Amino acid sequence: MDPTISVSKGCFVYKNGATRAGKKAASKRKRPAAESISLLGKEVVQQPFYEEYRKAWNQINDHIADLQHRSYARTLEQLVDFVVGQAERATPDEVLPTAALLTGINQPDHLSQFTALTQRLHAQRAAMVCVLQSRDCATLKAAVESLVFGLIEDDAEVEQMEDEDEDEDGAERDRKRLRRSQCTMKQLKSWYTNNFDSEQKRRQLVVILPDFECFNASVLQDLILILSAHCGSLPFVLVLGVATAMTAVHGTLPYHVSNKIRLRVFQTQAAPTGLNEVLDKVLLSPKYAFHLSGKTFKFLTHIFLYYDFSIHGFIQGFKYCLMEHFFGGNAYALCTDYSKALGRIKQLTHDDMETIRRLPSFRPYVEQINDCKRIIAVLTDDDYLKKKLPQLLRDCLLHFLLFRCSLEFLTELVGDLPRCPLGKLRRELYVNCLNRAVISTPEYKECQQMLSFLSKDEFVAKVNRALERTEHFLVEEIAPLELGEACTAVLRPKLEAIRLAVDEVVKATMATVTRTSPNETRQATDHLTPVASRQELKDQLLQRSKEDKMRHQLNTPTTQFARALQKTLQLIETEIVQDNLRALQDAPPIHELFVFSDIATVRRNIIGAPRAALHTALNNPHFYMQCKCCELQDQSLLVGTLPDLSVVYKLHLECGRMINLFDWLQAFRSVVSGSDNEEVAQEQIDPQIQARFTRAVAELQFLGYIKMSKRKTDHATRLTW
Amino acid sequence: MEAICSSLEPLFPCREAAIETLGELIGDSSEAYPSAIYLFGHSGTGKTALTRAFLKECGKRQNVRTAHLNAIECYTTKIMLEILLDSLVPEQGDALKVDNMLDFVEQLRRQAAPRVEDQGFLIAVDNAERLRDMDANVLPVLLRLQELTNLNLCVILLSQLPFEKFYNKTGLSEVICLHLAQYNKAETQRILGSDFEQVRNQLLEQFAQDKKRLEICQEAVTEDFYNNYLNLFLSVFYKACRDVPELQLTARKCLSIYLEPVLDGTVDATDISRLWRHIAGPLRSALTQIYMRIEKPAEEAEDFTAIEDQSVRKLAQSLELPYYAKFLLIAAFLASHNAANQDKRLFVKHHGKQRKRMQTVNARAKTTEKMSTTLGPKSFSIDRLLAIFYAILEEKVGLTCNLLSQISTLVHLKLLSFVSGEQNIMEGSARLQCTIGLEFVLQIGKVVGFNVRQYLCDFM
């Protein structure tokens, strides 16, 4: 610190003209910071698991970004065309060209779309862009100022990007900082005439309102009127991000405003479709070794579909799972491509091997070995296990590939059945298949029944489609992978068998196969036994009809076609579903290395439950404080050693809507002092206890549980129920 | 003066009288101007266009300094004064700075005085009704600006309101009022028909490639044909809309549909009744979206008849909300349209028997006026919203941040709105209101399989 000559203590500003330099230095400082990527120390960053994690995340993230970029592309292209197109057409008197982009309800998600739009427009050098947030536009004055400021600053930024250092001074002079109050339409006009008036440099001025609904209606109306009034001299284009529907626009803008704009509607992809795309193409891609278990998968999609429609949120949730998985230890570094994993095996330490041994699915593996020596070797000898690991890893990886292919088959097969018992989309089927053995579920039976009801043409076409799609999937997605050939080798014969069976179905006729079951003859001769009452007769008939039905169901199909069909279905069931679409608990050993299933942690960490957390904290302080004094046998117990706030809280839970303060105080005192005989209650209350009580009540009020009542003296109102 | 009027009259048919009056008042800059003119009339009657053209002519022919500004833009007085001064005495350039009214009058006087003796100044202020909300001295000073500056200056105020609406406690000096009445049907038709040549040329240009159509077009599109079309068009639209620019726009849009069968050769150009049968439907559907200005890209133009009859059903289905948000919305609707004392009866399983008394029966015999669905939404607290939400939702969900943030999302989307206490949500005294209608909520209920009607007191 520089010494100062001053008698008083204080904070001194030294003017050294460092603002600009400071900015530079900051940007320089930022760069190395970006290189060292993480807050974690070197010892973590260099661990194999961390490397694998980073690789996996980067891969997936890039993939998602690429996918989203492509799905935005069409709308963006149209939008850019629209904006650029406005330049050519002579605007008729005072009509503001406007594009309404129907974005869907999650507005924060869509900011990225608008950034992409801005970048594109900049890249084409077609327009100046200002993104006007509703929070900047509380009043018309603020709105116009931030609009003008945004447009002029945007220009400065672009210029800066173009000629980084060339004429620093020139840029400096141009950019003598604008004061907010100077930003008026007049200023904008003169700026525009100075910079862009010549024909070839003419650029559109794009104003983007990303959250149309949040704008104050009157401000927005005035803003549009102003913009349209200047349309003749300044080529404005307005872009509205509409979250709900076009009626919102028409509801907000009265006739005299809406006839000043020319509206073009652009539709973006709906959020659920976007999510499905991400799930199908990225999360369910066979490319990645990391998988989510059925429950976790469902949990994340559940948050999306039931709560917020935020793809970004979903991706962050997924990232959290990924982190949680890999941070389990170095053993999880094996969760990668096969050849890489082989390399990793050598690096594993004894502890890592122990982690593997402790995996739940390792136990069945050990149990199925029937050689005593080998069991001991597996359990104690690290080197032996390391030798075994490649085979295990291979089995596991192969299993997931087969699972994925078979999923493709099954999706095509049952996806469009009426009422979709197993689910319509790939993700639903994935969850269903992974959660439990799908064969034994009633939904699967229902599917099978429905399939058998199909007509010949339909059935054949359906199975053929499924085969084709699986084949296609094998060629497109699986073949380029490392274990692709192995997977294809396993699956091809099965598909071939099914194809043959289908051919049988095609050839089969409707001719009945005459094979009388012995039952039928029995039934003919079967007489009703003599009965004593109506009731008995009724029962007997009922029984009979039930038996009939049973027999009918069990009966082998009578026509040739039905038999061939049944055979095909049987084949599909054994070859595809039973073999490959196994539930997670039947998956090969050490699958835990590839599948993340710790849903409890994720739930606890990514879903905030403030009310529940507060309740736990107050009801059972031991949970958070871990102190000896507050240990409770039963949660509802009231002990004097608890913190005052906790005691007061627990007492208030017993009350109704209104709480009498005096009674509350008495109860408090009896709990805290630990004695509740009558004489004590009569005497004067210890001021210390009263003070503690008052303070605890104030704290409870601060937390928002109670409010002092105005209607009834000395009463508090409960605000929770 | 005559020159100005005669040059404007062809541009503004049916406004001869107004132009003449204006010309008499401010047509000659060598004569003294009136201090202020108030020009009023509905939107689309040509106030702004007429004034603008008039000022331009004046500026051109008599070297009058003119300023035209829009009062909406002037959110501070300073901006208005600077714009005014800049356009009246533009010599100053960038250094121009006006802080208040006094300064403005002073500067205007100083800079304008040494100029030619009979220099005229004209100021037109659009949307003059906004002047009332500005600083208290703005309107009085503008009306007496001539007197204050001692210049030959006239202020023209344009507004949709009659001048009586401007009176305030301190009173205003007299102005000359000039009313631009709405065009009647014949006048409207005359105005719309005046751009016949332009329309015809446009059509011919459009079909320049297609020989056959070009020929038909040349033959069929005559002045009579166009007038017939406008007659039919106005018979539908004149009752709903008298805004001439709007009518002009829509008329041009619909003309191509009207022309279609003629071009195809299916209907003769003179067979008006068949053409009418053909056009009636599209016209009616165009009527529903007049003023909306939705523009279709070229490839979608053909389904013009079917566009966007944004019925509530379609809207509710197109609005994508997360599952719980839908239930929250339904819960909000129920909370808004049921009395709080009915909640127990509606949402609790064993709510006990209700005793019927004549009084209650009478009270509950609802007439439509008393139906709460027609009375509009009542406010409710967040607690009640959540309680109803949990009652109507079959599954159990935790009260998590994600759920609570849905409420604010709905507020953002303007499906709910705060009635009071927006600042103290934490305290629990904030009250919300549901802003959607019954139709809409019924549709949402249908999507999630929940019968909303069953839970509305009105329908019990």
Top keywords for this entry?
heterodimer, A: 721 residues, alpha/beta, Rossmann fold, Arc Repressor Mutant, subunit A, five-stranded parallel sheet, three-stranded antiparallel sheet, B: 460 residues, 21 helices, flat, Origin recognition complex subunit 5 (chain B), nucleotide-binding (chain B)
Written overview of the protein:
The complex is a heterodimer of chains A (721) and B (460). In chain A, helix 12 crosses helix 19, helix 14 packs antiparallel against helix 18 and helix 18 packs across helix 19. Chain A contains 32 helices and 10 strands. The relative contact order of chain A is 0.07. Chain A is α/β, with parallel strands linked by helices. The longest helix of chain A is centred in the first third of the chain and has 41 residues. Among the domains of chain A are: 155 residues, Rossmann fold (3-Layer(aba) Sandwich); 103 residues, Orthogonal Bundle (Arc Repressor Mutant, subunit A). In chain A, the strands form 3 sheets. A 5-stranded parallel beta sheet of chain A has the order 2-3-4-1-5. About 5% of the residues of chain A have low confidence. The two termini of chain A are 57 Å apart. Chain B is α/β, with parallel strands linked by helices and 460 residues long. Chain B has 3 domains: 179 residues, P-loop containing nucleotide triphosphate hydrolases (Rossmann fold, 3-Layer(aba) Sandwich), CATH 3.40.50; 121 residues, no CATH class; 139 residues, no CATH class. Chain B contains 21 helices and 9 strands. In chain B, the strands form 2 sheets. A 5-stranded parallel beta sheet of chain B has the order 2-3-4-1-5, sandwiched between helices. In chain B, helix 15 crosses helix 21. The longest helix of chain B has 21 residues. Chain B is flat, with a radius of gyration of 31 Å. The termini of chain B are far apart. About 3% of the residues of chain B have low confidence.
